[in-house]
Design goal:
Helix content: 40-55%
Distance between the termini: 65 Å
Number of strands: 4
Order of helices and strands: HHHEHEEHE
Radius of gyration: 24 Å
Number of helices: 5
Strand content: 15-25%
């Protein structure tokens, strides 16, 4: 009777899972940091990510017959992607532009947003049903919930679109924690 191979059936799959989880989490953050202009941190994350990956692949190749290691690899990849996105969501890096379109109440909403410390630009426009006001405000991503709360309170039927801003200079942003 052959002895149970703890290493290839249990230990290796767990190590592969953990390594892949960490490596993919770092890779997800690296891509997000790069796209958000945080280019100083991205190369360091990339170095660690690839170092973990190459060390792990070496272990899998040595135990190429281990289906459990393959499953650990795939599960680590999936969980690493999910956790990387959740970490980025909590960090809330970046700047957004809110475009708010409303038929009425533009001045009131602009006043409330300005009172909260946001800069607002108002433009007259014409929508499908007539005259509208377009309000633009550039905010920190971490302030999205606070800003949209004001918008929903003052003008619950406002149309809001949110876009990521690659870069912004100057502007009015609220100070301190929200």
């Amino acid at each position: 009777m052959e002895a149970f191979d703890w290493y290839s059936l249990v230990v290796l799959p767990i190590l592969v899972f953990i390594a892949r989880f960490v490596d993919v989490t770092l890779g997800t953050l690296r891509i997000i940091f790069t796209s958000r202009g945080r280019r100083n941190l991205a190369p360091l994350l990339g170095f660690v990510e690839v170092f973990i990956w190459i060390a792990m692949v070496g272990q899998i190749v040595r135990s190429a017959h281990s289906l459990n290691a393959y499953l650990g690899y795939a599960a680590g990849f999936a969980l690493g992607t999910f956790v990387g996105m959740k970490i980025e969501e909590r960090l809330a890096l970046g700047t957004l532009i809110l475009r708010i379109i409303l038929a009425q109440g533009g001045a009131d909403l602009a006043g409330q947003l300005r009172a909260a410390g946001y800069g607002v630009t108002i433009v007259n426009g014409e929508g499908a049903s007539g005259q509208v006001k377009l309000l633009y405000t550039v905010i920190k991503r971490k302030d999205l919930a606070a800003a949209t709360s004001i918008i929903h309170t003052v003008c619950p039927k406002a149309f809001i679109s949110v876009e990521e801003v690659r870069s912004a200079e100057s502007g009015v942003f609220p100070r301190g924690p929200r």
